[in-house]
């Protein structure tokens, strides 16, 4: 029987910028599963997005590091930034599986909007052989509208708790209520000079302002 706290959490994202919603999810994953470690993995080259991130991979990595500083159990894994190729989650999970061995449960956290797109991910069906999926519900998420191949996995693989009896292969929703916060909205607010109090970690906001990322500071009223 695998000890539950040997399980590892993985949370990948563009993190342009990392925000309070991301941190809330990472903490929820850690706490609901009693994980000793959740790895936040900034996507070096999020090839799947229509527009490239505004902040560079190094800046997004730096912001992630600032965001988790002093947070028990949350660490930043820079492998996708260092990889120098498109960021494929299947590749990341295969690397982690090789490093952690076959028995350690890996919980890969994604938002409901990412789940809806899962069938577009590279070699997506292989993900279930490598990790469990934890899904963070997001405002507007409706399982009834999932594309059928994903809906079939959602139905068949759901479990009602986090058992950690198997190292991979199940799906479940986190219990925490959805929160309406997105990096898109924050980029817009920063560009307009609008308040972002409580939505971005203070150290990350200081980094954004110092580097004038997202137009921060440019549009403030004089
Ligand atoms: N408020 C949220 N609720 C649930 N999941 C979220 C939330 N914000 C982000 N996520 C999830 O976190 C992961 C990384 O998200 P990402 O870095 O793209 O942030 P985002 O806020 O969705 O950014 P953007 O608005 O630029 O698309 C994705 O799987 C996304 O679904
Ligand atoms: O592996 C893929 O093909 C793939 C396709 C789309 C998204 N992802 C991953 O999903 C995570 C969330 O993506 P995003 O765009 O919401 O930040 C991030 O870690 C991406 O690398 C992965």
From TrEMBL:
* SUPFAM superfamilies per the UniProt record, alphabetical: Nucleotidylyl transferase (SSF52374)
Any one GO BP annotation for this protein: NAD+ biosynthetic process
Q: Does the keyword ATP-binding apply?
A: yes
Q: Which GO terms describe its molecular function?
A: ATP binding; nicotinate-nucleotide adenylyltransferase activity
Name the catalysed reactions. nicotinate beta-D-ribonucleotide + ATP + H(+) = deamido-NAD(+) + diphosphate
Q: Which domain of life is it from?
A: Bacteria
- Coiled-coil ranges from the UniProt annotation: none
What EC number(s) are associated with this protein in UniProt?
Answer: 2.7.7.18
Q: In which pathway does it act?
A: Cofactor biosynthesis; NAD(+) biosynthesis; deamido-NAD(+) from nicotinate D-ribonucleotide: step 1/1
Q: Which residues form the Cytidyltransferase-like domain?
A: 10-189
Keywords noted in UniProt: ATP-binding, NAD, Nucleotide-binding, Nucleotidyltransferase, Pyridine nucleotide biosynthesis, Transferase
| Family the entry assigns | Belongs to the NadD family.
Q: PANTHER family, per this entry?
A: NICOTINATE-NUCLEOTIDE ADENYLYLTRANSFERASE-RELATED, PHOSPHOPANTETHEINE ADENYLYLTRANSFERASE
Q: Per its database record, what is this protein's job?
A: Catalyzes the reversible adenylation of nicotinate mononucleotide (NaMN) to nicotinic acid adenine dinucleotide (NaAD).
Task: State what protein this is by name.
Answer: Probable nicotinate-nucleotide adenylyltransferase
Could you tell me which species this protein originates from?
Crenobacter luteus
């Amino acid at each position: 029987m695998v000890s539950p706290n040997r399980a590892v959490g993985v949370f990948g994202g563009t993190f342009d910028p990392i925000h309070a919603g991301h941190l809330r999810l990472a903490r929820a994953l850690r706490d609901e599963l009693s994980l000793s470690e959740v790895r936040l993995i900034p996507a070096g080259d999020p090839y799947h997005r229509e527009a490239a991130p505004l902040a560079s991979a190094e800046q997004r990595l730096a912001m992630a590091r600032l965001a988790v500083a002093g947070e028990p159990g949350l660490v930043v894994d820079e492998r996708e930034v260092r990889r120098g190729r498109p960021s494929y989650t299947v590749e990341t999970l295969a690397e982690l599986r090789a490093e952690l061995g076959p028995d350690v449960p890996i919980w890969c956290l994604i938002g409901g909007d990412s789940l809806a797109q899962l069938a577009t991910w590279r070699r997506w069906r292989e993900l279930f052989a490598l990790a469990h999926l934890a899904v963070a519900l997001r405002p507007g998420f409706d399982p009834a509208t999932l594309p059928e191949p994903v809906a079939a996995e959602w139905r068949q693989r759901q479990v009602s708790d986090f058992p950690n009896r198997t190292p991979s292969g199940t799906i479940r929703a986190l219990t925490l209520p959805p929160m309406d916060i997105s990096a898109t909205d924050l980029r817009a607010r920063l560009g307009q000079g609008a308040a972002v109090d409580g939505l971005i970690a203070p150290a990350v906001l200081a980094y954004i302002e110092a580097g004038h990322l997202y137009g921060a500071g440019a549009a403030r009223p004089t």
